Amino acid sequence: MSSTPRLKAAKRDWGHDETGCTVLHIDMDAFYASLEVARHPELAGKPVIIGTGTRSVVSAANYKARRYGVNSAMATARARRLCPDGVFLPVDIDYYRRMSRRIFTEVFGRVTDAIEQVSVDEGYMDVSSALMRWGEPSAIGAWIREQVHRRFAITCSVGIASNKLVAKIASTNAKPDGMLLIPVASQARFVQMMPLRGIPGIGPALEQRLNAWGAHTVADLADMSEETLARATGSALSARHLSLASHGLDERQVTPRAPEKSIGAERTFDTDTRDRDRVCGLLRWCCDDIAASLRRRHLMARTVTLKLRFPDLHYATKAHTLQQPVDTASALYPQVTSLLDAMLGSGREGHGDASERRRASSNPAAPNRPEAPQPLLSRAIRLAGVSASGLEPISKTVSQPSIDDLMEEEASSTGTTTSARLRDAERTLDAIRHRYGDQAASLGA
Hints:
The chain is an alpha+beta fold. The chain has a domain at 262-436: 2-Layer Sandwich (Dna Ligase, domain 1), CATH 3.30.1490.100. It has helices spanning 31-39, 63-66, 76-82, 93-106, 131-134, 137-152, 164-174, 187-192, 204-212, 218-222, 226-233, 236-246, 276-296, 329-344, 354-362, 403-411, 418-436; strands at residues 23-28, 48-50, 60-61, 87-89, 115-119, 122-126, 156-161, 179-181, 262-275, 299-309, 315-326, 346-347, 376-389, 392-393. Helix 7 links the parallel strand 7 and strand 8 (179-181). Helix 11 crosses helix 12 and helix 13 packs antiparallel against helix 14 (329-344). The radius of gyration is 26 Å and the shape is globular.
């Protein structure tokens, strides 16, 4: 669900000259919520909000719910106060991804293979090679909208322009369930009527910096030199991007099947916790989920990153680059727990250190003591997550066995290493889950 501002004045007829307008941006309307209504027709006409739990956030809301002020990333508890009659549903990401694949394959793929999917619910198309068959880009956009609605009972919005930037802004302002063509001759005028946040990539922090330099609209940016923009942003690269964008220009090409940069998983605890074992249990699930995704996509990762969110909603991250690329939870998890201890350590709240408790438990003559408490982190955690990056196809990955691996392999009666056996075990889990569902089996401690 996009939070990019839209202007009513922008949703108008900008002309019909489609020359050079070969880039389409297609954005599903309230995708998660719309898919839920499509498979549960009894929800039609009701405010539908995706996100449950007292500490979760809204992942999506349909347009009926948005009239109550509900937006994505809003705390679900607040959404319930704003929209007490709303239908709150849990996130079913597997279903949403499956339907996304079908839409991109069964609809977009029938037009061209020059498709750049940027998220589960939006993508760009370069239709220049398809015009001989289809005639005009607007005919393609109209067909896509009709097919998505007829086949999947949801709607999408389409922006048509000469480049990715203008096409995306056009689709945003065409919402919901609309199509907007911006001819080349009108693209500068179209973009310059937007507020700063109308340019993708301009967030609150950058907006404030630009405001301090007297820029409050895209038209203001167009009047500024690149040198001034570089001083305002602190980056010559950002200045170049903003200068081009303010004139409706974009040098980026539609890149089919852009490689993924990272794969991650995270969850919010029901209550803030300092219990290290509880946090590690969640991190193990994250590693298992990520490793399964890596193997499913035939990728390996070289860097693992731990992400923590604290009760005051601040984030902290710490990363480690591995000597060898990996695709197993058994390899990721030890690295993640090391990062956790490096970030927060663990305290025992005056109960003595681990060595003291071990001596007491091993001495039968020791006086009766209460059971040793679980180790505590030095700070409470609200959310924990893991991501794997430095991704590369397994077919192109060169893995050099370590000395320890070679020695273990030579000493083993089976001629295999522990890491190899664990990898085989996780692949077996993949097969079980594929057949019986994701909850059929889990990785043990």
